[in-house]
Structures are given as C-alpha cells and as structure tokens.
Fold each of these.
Amino acid sequence: MTVVVFGSINLDLVVEVAHLPAKGETVIGDRFFSFAGGKAANQAVAIAKLGVPVSVVGQVGDDIFGQTLINSLQSSGVNTDSITINPHTYSGVASIVVDRYGANTIACAGGANNLVREPEIKQFNNLLPQAKIVLLELGIPLATVLTAAREAKAHNCLLILDPAPVTSNLPEELYSLVDIITPNEIEASQLVGFTVDGVTTARQAASSLHQMGAKNVIVTLGSQGSLYSNQLESYWIKPIDVPVVDTVAAGDAFNGCLAAGLASGKKIEEALLWATVGGALAVTKNGAQSSLPNKESFQQLLNQQTLLG
C-alpha cells in the first residue's frame, strides 16, 4: 500500500442557499444533497481516483450512514479493511451550507470520529511497513494524531498534516514530526496568531511555522493560489482559473493529489501542480467525494498547465 490516510469519515448533509445565514437568520435553501465525506475519506478518494493505492484508517458507527460511507470508499477503489465499525455510537455527520458563489459554512457532529484511539492505531501500524506516505488531519482526537505521527516517522514515512479542523495549540512535537503542513488561510491565521490573507502574509506565516518546527509549509489561498516554503526558499503557486460551483472538499482534493503526486515519484514542484489541478477541479462540482477529479479530467487539465516554481 503506497499511501495511508488516517482521520475522519463523515456523511455530508448539504443545503444550497442564496446567501450564508447570519447569526439567528433562517435562510430557505434551493436544493439539498447528501454526500459521503470526511477529510480523511475525501483525501483517500482523491488519491484512489488518480490510480494510486491507498488505505483509509478511521471509525464509523454501526448505522446506515456508516455502511453508506464504507460503500462509497470501496466504489472509488479505497481499501477500507482498516475502518472500525463501532456498534455503540453514530457515524460522523457534517451539516454544510453553500451559497451561490461556492462559499460554505460547516458544522460537524464527530460521532465515531471522536472515539478513534488504540484499535485504530493498531490497524494503522499494520499498514505502515508497506506505506510510503501518510496523511493525517485533526478530525479525530489530537492524542491519536500525535501517536500516529510518531509511528509514521518511526517507519520512515513521509508525513503530511492537514491541520483541520484547526486548533491553535498544536504540540511542538507534532510540528517537528511532520514533513509537510498544509493550512489554508484561516487555519494558518489561527496557528500563527495573525491574519493571513494573501501571499505576503502567507510567507510570514510560513516563517513562523518554520520557527515552530515545521519543515515544509504549503499555505493554500483559494483564488490566490498557494505559497510553498521550506527553510531555504519560498515561492508562489499560481491558481488555475475555473468556474466555482462549490468549494467543499477543495482542500482535501489538494492534499490528496499532492500525496498522489509524491507517491508517484514526482518532485515537490510537480506534486504541487498536481495538487493545484486537483483543487481547481474539485470546486467545479457539487459535493465532497463526488466532486473529486477522475484520472481523465485530471490529466486533461494537467496537460494544459506548466510546471510551477
């Protein structure tokens, strides 16, 4: 198994509205959808759709949502043997509101994701001898993430951390274990304690994250592209202009395609191009896993781009 993704698995309940509701406001939606989602699940599907072998480790409840989520992963080619089905809780659910411009707000009930602990760590450890790259995110308990990071590094895996849902008090040890950290603007702002709203502030945030122990930093900036930084250099990655329908899972597509590129032997510059193409294609469709690009559409857009950096 080339890539292992460890984290949250959710069912997304999505309402399309004309504008996002203000505090206390009720907005009548235009359409409703339900999609298989969860950051780890989305990232695993993004990887599988590009033909890279991938396993996901996590937990769902013993309910209709849980079986739906596992079936969706399997239909995309993801190995689900390491997912625990917990009969004592419910599967994770995300309630998502999307406006006509593709902006969204998300509220999650973690359910089974909140109970990911020792059994899942054991499943994770069983996969590591065959793993080349590990993706982690913060939709499961932080203590579990930290343990998984230690285990991944003990097996010499390249470790990518998507620091979402963001928490500002990440342990210093986690920064030092991670090879690549990939916050968006909001997440970077909370991690470093100042507003990140463009390339200049992203570069400043990357510098702060390096001081915290991060080796390689990618700050995604939505329509402004992204900023890559290591301890020697930084450069801007230009965005790809596409019509925006729904930004749900764009970050997951970015991370998944980044991992897929690296797992396929690409250098960081070309893997960043893969990530940018994947993120761009994801915003052109509704939903989470349903919006992730297949190999054909991905390759078509990739062929139209030039190497970044």
Amino acid sequence: MTDATTTPLHPRPVGGEPRPWAFPAPERSSLPNGLTVLRSHRPGQRVIAVEMNLTAPLETEPQGQEGVATIMARAFNEGTDKHTAEEFAAELERCGATLDAHADHAGLRVSLEVPASRLTKALGLLADALRAPAFADSEIERLVRNRLDEIPHELANPGRRAAMALYAALFPAESRMSRPRQGTAETVERIDAKAVRAFYDAHIRPAAATAVVVGDLTGIDLDAALKETLGTWTGSAAEPPVWSSADVNDAARVVIVHRPGAVQTQLLIGRTGPDRHDPVYPARRLGIYCLGGTITSRLDRVLREEKGYTYGIRAFSQVLRSSADGSGLALLGIRGSVATDVTGPALADLWQVLRTLAAEGLTDDERDAAVQYLVGVAPLSFETAAAVAGTLADQVEEELPDDYQARLYARLAETGAVEASAAVVRALPADGLVTVLVGDAEQIAGPVRDLGIGEVTVVGG
C-alpha cells in the first residue's frame, strides 16, 4: 500500500488572468425582400440560435378572436406547402433542430436552434413555415381544442389567476392588455383555420420581420444560406404598429380573488411605468434588485428570514410594449405567496419595507452587492448562443439600439445608491399600488382592510 505521505499530488489549479468581456455587438444587414438580419459570430458555439421577430402585436387581433395569434404561432410547426405536420416534425428531427413560437403583446417570436453543420437545411424549414404554412383545418381544430383544455388549468393556478386579475384591474375592459394574452374560452372557440389565415395574411411578411442569428459561423456562408432560404419569402411592405393610448388606473386598491379553503394567499402587487427607453431604467433595475431580486434582498430578509411568512418573494420589472416614441409600457411589481393566516401581517411588513426604503434609501453595501452580481454574472448569463440571440431579439422588439445591452452594464456600474433608491421608490410607491390577492376572502379580507392600503373588492375565483 502506498504511503500517504509519499503519494504524489497534482499541482493545485490556480485561476487565470481575467479576460475583458463585453456583450457582443451584432452586425446588421437586410435581404432584398425587406427582412432585417442581425448576426453575431460566437466562436465555439456550435449550436446556432435563430430568433425571428414578427411584428404582429396582440393589439391587432380581431375583437372577439383574442388568442388567434397564439394559435397561429403554434401552427407554424404543423406543416407547410411541402410537408405535412408529421413530415415537418421528422425533417426538424433529422436536422437535430427545435422550432418554437409564441405570441405576446409586442409581437410574435419564432425560435430555432440547430447544430451549425445543419443550419442551411433548418433555415429552409423555418423559411417554409413562415412563407407557406399549411394551416390545415384539422391541425387548427386540434390546436384550438388543446388551448381550450389549457384554460381551466390556468384559472386554477393562483399565480396565473392573480396576473389575470391585475391586468383587468389596471387596464380598461376595451384595452387588449386587460384580457389574457392567449385568449379566453369564449374567444378561442371562435377561432378556425380561416381566422388564422386572415391574421397571417394581414401581418406576417418579411418586411415586418427581423432574423437574429448567433453562433459559431466559421465556414458558413450565411449570406448564401439566408438568400436561398429566408430570402425566398416574399410579401408586401409593412407599416409599423400604432399603439393605442394606455388608460391605466394605478389608484391604490385591493382585489381579492376568492378561493374558499385556500391554505395560501398568492400576492401580486403592481403598477405600470415606463419601458427600457427611460433614462433611469438602469437605476430602477438596480433598485428593484436590491428590493426583491434575490434571497438576500430586503423583502426576503424580512418576510422570509426574519418572519418565516414565505418561501420567497420577488420584485420585478416586465416590459409590456416598447417604442422609441415614448409610448412604451412596463409592469412593475412584487409577487410571492404566504400562508393564509399571516396574510395581514405579511402585507403589513411588506408595506413597512417600502416605507422604510422611501424614508432611508438603500445602503452603499446593498448597492455594491447588487452591482457586483448584475455586472459580474453577465458573462455567465450569455454563455450560450440562445441567450445572446434572445437578448438581441428583445432589443429589436423594444426598438432599442443594437449596443443597448453592452452599454447597460457600464451604466449599472456608474449608478449610485441615491439614484437607485429614488428610482425604485418612484417605481413602487407605497401609496400607489394595486394589490391582487388570490386566497380565502373570508379569512383575509378583514385583516387586509385594517391595513388601509386601499379599498378592498372581493371577486369570485
């Protein structure tokens, strides 16, 4: 047996010199058919990510057919003029590719991931799906049935139900934002292949689309690949979307969605604010992170660590629609869940955190820890081609400059505690929040009324 004292040991590994990092700057071009292209060469990323932005906001859905954009997005995977649904799925599998699509307020997003060696073939399938989707009656009927089956599950989910109630409270009934993104049972069941085709014909064209391609492009003639695939897609010119004015009711009040016997209360507290074009966005992001971005944030320290009310509570900022003309809109909020019997005390402590923040501001230590994380984790956050492509596609969707993300980290590092404090207090003022609670109204309504955080209304679950 070898003597442990004489066993040779491998040298202890040491860290290398840190290398400078910056968010990759894309190269912008366009195809003759009007399609905009952003590309980013990422050596070593042999799985190529392609994100397609299609300018078809939910606001353009015909009234009474809300959900048609979602059904259309799902149908892009269900056959073309060249392949049946089954054949199309088989062709994607042969490429080792995945193709997904979804619709949101800002528009449609189609995502493709494929090994670099099969990029051209996969781009051809993507082009066929966008150029000539089959929209077969049988496939649309199946997608509609699937969507109708999903709705009862969403209504039974406290988090989803809270979101529905918050949007309905913030926006007037005639606003598309007041209604579920993927439609209601009443509107979805009105959708058929004719409606899907009409929505496609009205909005989907290359001149209203952007392709973001990210990955290791070594040895790939991307211009040629795009020309013979997405370059064959034709269509008329496109007009930019015109957003209707958003009449928002941010007056402080409480909406309780009654769930008899619920052992937990789902919290969703929010209001609206400006999008990422706002010059104070970096300070707001920093402040929101300090308030509720991690398990060491103020909200978690009080409600989770000190009081044991929750497994976790988070503050967030979510862009709803964005425009360089100043008409953009974001949802600013706090979400989490607490035991039913501590709903009143938990909300009281949450409001105390907000009031203390307004009175005293963030500490330099809180600010420094947040900057260190947000800036320091960036290289890891964008390790994959898909992460880079998704962020570049977000910038396109939000009409932000191509170097926005790269400049954001420098701005975060320059933001002080005073600026971050002012931004988060302005974003989430203690006296200007709409509170949605999904829980047992018979147990929580009284204690919540006693808090004085707004008029309390109880609605059915």
Amino acid sequence: MALSRDSILEASDVQTETVPVPEWGGDIILRGLTGEELDAYQASRRQIRNAGTKEQEVVFVQDNARATLLVKCIVDEAGNRVFTDRDAGLLGMKNGKVLDRLFEVASSLSGLSDEDQEEMEGNSETPDRDGDSSSSSPEPSAEPEPSSSEVSAPAS
C-alpha cells in the first residue's frame, strides 16, 4: 500500500542521537537537518570563484564549517536548538577534535554525502566550468617570489 500525502508529511523522520562529550562534562543531543536546512547549509558553504571565466570554480568554504553545522544540530530534550547561527564563532573556539567528532555524527544524521565530507577535509577535486571533475597533473610552479620580509630593507 502506497503512502498518502498526509502520512508522508506527518511522519516524524528527523533523527536525533545523544552523544557523550566527556570533554564538556556530559552528553549533548544532535538532531539531523531537514532537507530544507541541509540545502541551505550546503549552499552557504559553496562559493563560485572567477564567475563567468574559463577559470570558474566552485569551492567549499571551510571557515568554521563544523561549528556552523553544529549550531544548527545541537538541541535540548524538547528538540529546540541550543545555539543560534550567531554562536558559530564561539562554538568554533572549542576543541577541534571534539567538534570534528560531533560533526561526523551530525553529518551522518543530516545526510551529508561522503563527497561533502571530503570537500570539508579538502580532498575532493573541484569541477570546472563544464562540470568535468577530471584533472591532469598541474605544471610545476615557478620559483616563489621572495616575501617582503625576505627582501632586505634599505640601510639607514
């Protein structure tokens, strides 16, 4: 028997998981994102560089990405968010190992793909303008320019 519209919309399918965080002195509850929240999170983490050029690329913005997800997923016993989006900067100052462990759980609950997680870790190739993610080995780079600190200042 096929599900009806109402039965689908009434189904409680957002998962939660209680995770011990001994470093913080207790447990927290993580809630997976809804489809709408997941799309918004993923869109907020992508940036197009060199738009409209042959060098156009989509990059994953890693700046505080773990805490940005976690503030959306940490909830209390009633299912209410503990943090606001503005708290991501503060949460991001917590231990990276703890945030990474919690991010893995929140990602799994939210349906973030393996590809998304690889982008977080900086391991994926970036598709070019035509959507082709294949790449050839880059040419060796030229000798680096000396930095301003390496260039001697005029004698006084």
Amino acid sequence: MQIIEQKQAFQHALLSWYAAEKRDLPWRKTDDPYYIWISEVMLQQTRVETVIPYYERFIEKFPTMQDLSNAAEEEILKMWEGLGYYSRVRNLQSGVREVVENYGGTVPATRKEISTLKGVGPYTAGAILSIAYGVPEHAVDGNVMRVLSRILLIEEDIALPRNKKLFEQAVMELICEEDPSSFNQALMELGATICTPNPHCLLCPVREFCIAHEEGKQQQLPIKSKKQKMKHVSLASFAIQNAEGEWLMQKRPSTGLLAGLWEFPMIELQEVPAWEAFEKESGLVLKNITELARFPHVFSHITWDIHAYRAQLTDINTDDSLQFFTKEQVDALPKSKPVLKMIESIDW
C-alpha cells in the first residue's frame, strides 16, 4: 500500500489536524479506563450529541466501578433510559463486576485479558487500551473502516465480518506508537466529521494521501452490502388508569427486546379493533378509550408501528395481580422510548 511508504507524513498530518480541530468532549478529558469504557459503550449506535448528558449523569451517579458493580439493575436501566440497546449497560455492569472481583478493580491492560470481559469486543478493547493506557492497539469501528477504505482504496465489503481483519491490520501498520490514543481518536474523528458517507474532501487533512480521492472513487467507497429487509410489526399500547387515577404498568421479560423495562400493556394488532383485541387477551374491560398518537420505534432488525391509546379501567375489574403506579412512581421506573413518547402525549 503506497500510504505505508509515507506513514510518518500521514501520521503528522492527521495528528496535527486532530490537535487543532478535535471536538471538546467530556470523555477526552480523562484517561480513566473505567470512564473511557463507559463512553465507548454509550457511543455504540448512538450519536455523540445524545451521549454527552447521559455520560455526565452516569459517571456522577456511578463514579467508581464499585458503585456500578453494587447498583441494582433497575437503577442502571433508569440511568440508561432513552439510550436504547439496553443489553449494553447490562453487559457493562457484568464486565465491571468481573474487574472488581477478578482484577482488584483495575481494568486489564492487555488485549487478551480485557477481551474476556463481558461485552468487551475487539473495538472496545482497542479503544480502552489505546486511549486509557497508550497501548498501540487497533480500534476499528464503522467510521474507521470508511476512512481507511478510501485512503487505502480497500474495495472489500465492510459488512462482512471476515473483512474487518484487513482494517485492523491496516491500523496496526499505520498507528503512531508514540501516541496511539490520539491516532485512533483522530481516525474516528475524521470519519465522524469529514470523511462522512458524503465526504468533505476539500477539508480533509490527509487528502493528499487518499488513493480513492486520487482516483475519483471516494463516493463509491466503502462497499457495504445491504442489510436484510426490515420487519414491521403493528402494535397497540394502552395507558390505562384505575378509579384512583393510578396507571397500569407491566415489566417486560428479563430477556429479549427492551428486557426488564416497564411499559404500558401492549398487544400485536389484529383485524378486530385494538381495544377489542386487548380486552379479549387481557380479560380487562375498558372505557373512555381515546387515541394518543401513532409512531414508529426502530430496532436494528425490526420496526414497531405503535398505536398508542389512553383508557380507563371499569370499576368491575378487581384483579389484585395488576400493578398500578402513581404518576410519580411511573416517573421513577426505567422505561423505553415508546413509553416516554406516550407519556409526552398524555395530558396529566
């Protein structure tokens, strides 16, 4: 690869740009591996702007690994509320507990050891090792693959897991061993701000090293095969009050989508009216049913098309197993984005 021959010049151009132009982000003000770990987990599949307030609240609530290790699941889910992909925070807590129990509260500083922790994949391991410990290790995410596919003219499908090795090897060839932290973050920053899906090549600090730009192929890269078709499911969700004005909530199963979060009762829509299907399935009888809103909720592989309703429970229902909560109690429960959207549309 011709870029390898100009490695030092490439490193200098990239690192000089990063030093001058990097965004002021809270996790860039620390080399604490625990805080770096939290930020990297939060940033997976989530925009930087969204993450910042969550990160700041999370480290304030759980300033040490011992604090997070001791926290109840509902407590950590509440702090993660609205970020989505809740398995991330469960895995984070499990991994932190392993560090506390097996490594005396010190995050391992080798790829072999850190990779054994729950939820720590190759990217997260490399990010923690390079940013927190200054170890020259690759940290390859989608941004980095996009950048390197253009700079090095790698015309392999980045959606295929086997091809990620090409990019990991390329990083290890190019990485600045004196400052791997800044190097890896600079590649990520370049992909996030300039070498975006629609690249801003005129602003790029390493344009002169980019083979794709030289050959006019930057718009064609990276090559990425399409995901399988998104599945759509239509659901009806009911915000139901009892005679005392309390709200009926139920907890989702401990595994699967939105595991362990609280929600208003929900059913899959059928050919009959939503309220009729709900009454038949639940055994409850509703009155004063009004539609609140309709909105989609998108997961990685499925979209929920949600029809949200508000209703009251008739006085003849006396099922003691139902769980009702006051508004203040509902506020305190960890809830998913669909529930938060429904709550926004309720005239309390």
